[in-house]
Amino acid sequence: MMPAARESLLDAAYTALARGPWPTVRMVDVAASAGVSRQTLYNEFGGKDGLARALVRREADGYLAGVDRALTGPTDPRDRLTAAAEWTTSSARDNALVRALLTGCWSERLPTPALPAVPSASAVPAQRRADGPLPSPADFVVLVRDRAVAVLAGPGVPRADTADLARSCELVVRLALSCVAAPPAGNGVADLVRGALHRQPLP
Predict the structure, then answer these.
(1) What is the spatial distance between Cα 44 and Cα 158, in angstroms, rounded to a whole number?
(2) pTM value?
């Protein structure tokens, strides 16, 4: 299947989830909405569990891609980390799957795929990746922290020389996640991050 068709199916599944709980989402409706046969949907994802894992994987990847964009925006490292924190809270606010991935709180209306890898016999490389391990909240802390360190430290900097920067980046990630769980009012995320970074060593 063409990647565009796979994306259309995932878009259809995401739209169906926005309209009702995952247990009520029917494969036949997802296929019809994407304009493909139900057999094509099963060939691509293997079943509803495979579709759920692929959907969750896509939303996780989309969140991390947004982190990368935020970190490569402004020139000031504090502004970059603030942008990443704001992206984290806005993504979690607007996307229930991202919120569940970041917090580990999966409601009954969401698909709840197991985070460990599942056996995969799929011939589709993208599905084999989706059938692999899905990131836990602790994994996201490490993934975002390490992305931030790599961008802010620059290439070729020894890991030992980035320990203070890594602690500052992890502080921001954990602060952002606390704001996901208990959103501050107004411009609170940016103010909290800038306040926390005021005395932190940054490049």
Answers:
(1) 42
(2) 0.92
